[in-house]
Amino acid sequence: MSTVIYPSPIFGPIHSRRLGISLGINLQPADGKVCTFDCIYCECGFNKDHRPTLPRPSRELVEQKLEEQLQKMVAEEQLPDVLTFAGNGEPTSHPDFAEIIDDTIHLRDKYCPNAKVCVLSNSTMIHRPEVHNALMRVDDNILKLDTIDPTYINKVDRPTGHYDVQQIIKHMKAFNGHIIIQTMFMRGKTDGEKESVDNTGEEFVSPWLEVVKQIKPQQVMVYTIDRETPVKGLEKASREQLDAIRDRVIAADIPCSASY
């Protein structure tokens, strides 16, 4: 099994299916994974297999390395479309996340004012006021909601601590539309088990869509598996399935994109 452990604190730029030319900001250690989910489809592998020995990068180091990379990109006339907080785990779990967001916005305004600041988050920290307020300041606040079924969440997303999907939904609504919902759709079974992990059926899509309508996000991103996963037996959702889900979201007057 191959996994991706990203450099820290800066990686890329890379071409993202959904975001364009993305300069990555990884707030987790460079030699391992720290995440409040342990998803069976994560390209970084399982948490237990990648315990870090290095610390998280400090606020000061993130600012320094980001400025150095942006200066280089300006000199090469290759500006990023987006500065993306992602990498080896949940970015909002960094103790200085809010301050790092402020530093990043300042550097964006200085070197690449047309670029967006984007955070990819699994939503587990959005109940914290400082995280909520920081996410309100970024351009693209992309929050994960793979399903509203607790059994599926425990089987596939596998939260490492307490996770109440109804509370997550409540806090998503508190963004008052300044939120992009990101949902992974897939099919298949896990490592020889008979139980399906298919969330493309009506029993999953319909209640998920009703919650999406309640949250009223500015956009929805539906996507499927793109890289090797730590659990075997998982399958991509088909283009036809993603398109059908996308079209139902659009029919609810919510912009939606599908990535295959």
Write down the secondary-structure element order.
Answer: EEHEHEHEHHEEHEEHE
Strand elements, count: 10
Compute the number of helices: 7
Beta strand %: 15-25%
Shape: globular
End-to-end separation: 22 Å
Cα Rg: 18 Å
Q: Within the largest sheet, what's the order of strands?
A: 1-2-3-4-5-6-8-10
Biggest sheet character: 8 strands, mixed
Unreliable spans are none
Structural class, from helix and strand content? alpha/beta
**What would the average pLDDT be, to the nearest integer?**
95
Approximate helicity band: 25-40%
Can you describe this structure?
With 260 residues, the protein is an alpha/beta fold. It contains seven helices and ten strands. The strands form two sheets. Strands 1-2-3-4-5-6-8-10 form an eight-stranded mixed beta sheet. The protein has a two-stranded antiparallel sheet with strand order 7-9.
